[in-house]
Amino acid sequence: MSHFEMNSLCERVGLTEAASKANVDIYWNGPSNWDVQRQIDLIESSARARSYGIAVNPVSPFAANTAIREALSNRIPVVILVSPVRVAPSAHLYFVLEDTKTSAVLVSQRLNHLLNGQGEVALLGLDPLHPGSIERFQDVEAVLHRDSPGIHVDDQTAGPFGYGDLELGAEQILHEHPRVDAIVALNANSGEAAVAAIRAAHLQNRVHVIVYDQSLQLFLLLRHGEIDSIVAQDMHGIGAKAVSDIVADRTGKYASETTYLQPKLITQANIDDESNQRFLTMRWQPQ
Q1: Residue 126 CB neighbour total at 10 angstroms
Q2: Cα radius of gyration rounded to whole Å, the chain
Q3: Which of 25, 72, 103, 274 has its CA at a distance of 20 to 30 angstroms from the CA of residue 112?
Q4: Count of H-run helices and E-run strands, the chain
Q5: Which residues are CB-contacts of 133 (< 8 A; sequence separation ≥ 6)?
């Protein structure tokens, strides 16, 4: 029985099932509240312990790079989940990432459906220090410009934000752009902040919210109609591929250096579809 470290904020879906089939154990650990130093410490301790492998959903796009390189220098396979980090290509380094271009297409198609091809949109939650934030922002802007020329991006917030700052940013968007038709939230916290600001302004029936990433709270808001749709990542597939890459590396088999897994757009109309329920499942216990 082998063992590898799972140092991540990513849900455990897919990991245990894949690990059970591969006869490896998972040690689950990860920082709370996006604690960068805690994540670095965990990666370093995993490297010192000569873990079988490390799967990490990065808190920062660059802060943990030294710790990651230390693990790689010890020939420990490292899989980066969901969003890239700025580490030079290396043996034993793998990426299992969100397909941000497909995500942007889903957002553009949904906005076209909601706004009939004409309207004003704001982007909330751009944070250069948040992994994947810039890629999501740039891809949404590019796809809207290409495919939805009648939909204009009125505003975007930029900078590292706590929840209170995000809510204030959403309130400012609604005040300065009274004709805004939709807010695209680039992460879960931004989505919840947008909902709170729209609720306070009594604009629930006019301003649509599309949110990246899934959580139980966001699913509840979706079912209540306060969120229009969620760009949900394939967390089950991401977890399973992480285990597969680590085992392949350790057994001398081929593993692709970078894999992109496609998201789905979840709405009130399709959330209970059987295929989407399987996609969204957070059950990780072996059956």
Answers
A1: 20
A2: 19
A3: 274
A4: 10, 12
A5: 125, 126, 127, 186, 187
pTM: 0.89
State the DSSP code for 62: S
Distance, in Å, from the CA atom of 101 to the CA atom of 113, rounded to the nearest integer, reads 19
Degrees (nearest 5) of the Cα angle 264, 268, 270?
50
Name the one residue in this structure whose structure tokens are 């420990």.
76
Q: Using an 8 Å Cβ cutoff, are 8 and 30 in contact?
A: yes
Question: Could you tell me the two tokens for 1?
Answer: 């029985």
CA 51 to each of CA 26, 68, 73, 158, 234: distance values in angstroms, whole numbers, following the listed order = 10, 13, 13, 38, 26
Report how far residue 49's alpha carbon sits from residue 168's, in angstroms, rounded to the nearest whole number. Answer: 44
| DSSP assignments along 229-248, one per residue | EEEE--HHHHHHHHHHHHHH
- Block means of pLDDT (10 residues each) for the chain, 287 residues, are 50 70 76 77 91 89 90 95 88 95 97 96 89 92 95 75 85 94 94 96 96 93 97 90 93 92 96 91 58
Tokens of 194: 């947008």
Domains of the chain in start order, with CATH, are 2-98+234-261 (3.40.50.2300), 100-213 (3.40.50.2300)
